[in-house]
Protein: Ferredoxin reductase family protein
Amino acid sequence: MTTTLQQPVRPAAAGRATPHKVLAKAGLYVFLLANAAFVTYLFNAAGVGSNKLVNFGRLTGLYGALAMAFQLLLVARLPWLDRRLGMDKLTSWHRWVGFTIFWMLVGHLTFIAFGNAGADGPVAEIVRQATELEGILRALVAWAIIMVVGVVSARFARRKLAYETWHFIHLYTYIAIFLAFTHQIAVGSTFRKSALATGYWWGLWAFAIGAVVIGRLVLPFWRNWRHQFRVAAVVPEAHNVVSVYIEGRDLDRLGAKAGQFFLWRFLTKDRWWQANPFSLSAAPNGKYLRLTAKALGEGSADIRNIAVGTRVFAEGPYGAFTTMHQIKPNALLVAGGVGITPIRALLEEIKGHVVVLYRVTDPREAVLLHEIEGLARAKGAVLRLVTGSSKTITANGPLLGPDNIVALVPDVEERDVFICGPNGMTNAVVQSLSELGVPSNQVHAERFALAN
Structure:
């Protein structure tokens, strides 16, 4: 039996990020600002002409190129960054840096064209440079590719494009980066004036490209060679839910944590090219990894037919949705739908007193409920099944409104809160916690987005 909230709702308390996130963010900011300052110094040291438009064009081009290198660092999936910030935060940064590149390069072309334009106008000047100067045509092709990628990445376009189509177009960015870099080497006077400038620019790009090669190629292939993942068992959990157990060598040295996810490729002739992101549904124990999938699409529906012994190529572990960021001794875990899988894994690993709110429309849809009940009993945790439609109003207001949350968990302000579920549910819970004054650094709600 629950009680109604008797105290007024307070605004969200200020909360700094957890120490791990502060360190990662500070590292990225220092990297970006220090390089921007050094690029500005090299630009001035190389000599500034009297044509202000051309100077602005050169400088925006340099900043755009620096943003490209930073963009590569964000998509490299480096474990140190990923475990501290999470894929959703890195993807958000990736998006905004992408639009920064878009506008920097628009400014670069516009200022250069108008600054050098003669009587025939800026378009004629662009055509002249493209036909007469080395590297300009490559730059125009790179510019056109980035313009297309920028347009299709805008929200109005993304809503009309299939993910696969958008992703395919997005991959052309790598071609644009290569063309833009060769353009800088051919005509970039800033980095040809001194050995220091040349060495710096080559070193910066070697670092950025090396990060991508290591994070996206070397680490995944090395981990899979080392651990030799295979399907050990496929266990139905419900009529449309299945758990897959993955075995391998030296899994205790993989470094996976409860709450993280992998990109799984099952190496059969029909599925090897499909990478499905699934969270671990049990805490890693050194013996096996487990994922639990609901038949939401064709890819996840076919997983129940995977044969035991099938080789698996796994990329990961990814994500910052772990106890690494817990700052309070006790926790509240909130799950909705298939978001129960990382929550179930966290319940197994997390320390302190735990309350679990499991949000489902119908109790019969509560996947892994028996396991969670058993874990709750063993750990002395409190499990509350919150059922009803999104329009259900309880005696304390909406199911996941602030009044009902505090009625279910009176000491919610003294707990870390881990939330996983559909975006609508996640947003509702985050908003309720904000109204209750729960500090933002105690709220963990990773949405498992991937930077491409």
Q: What stands out?
A: The longest strand covers residues 230-238.
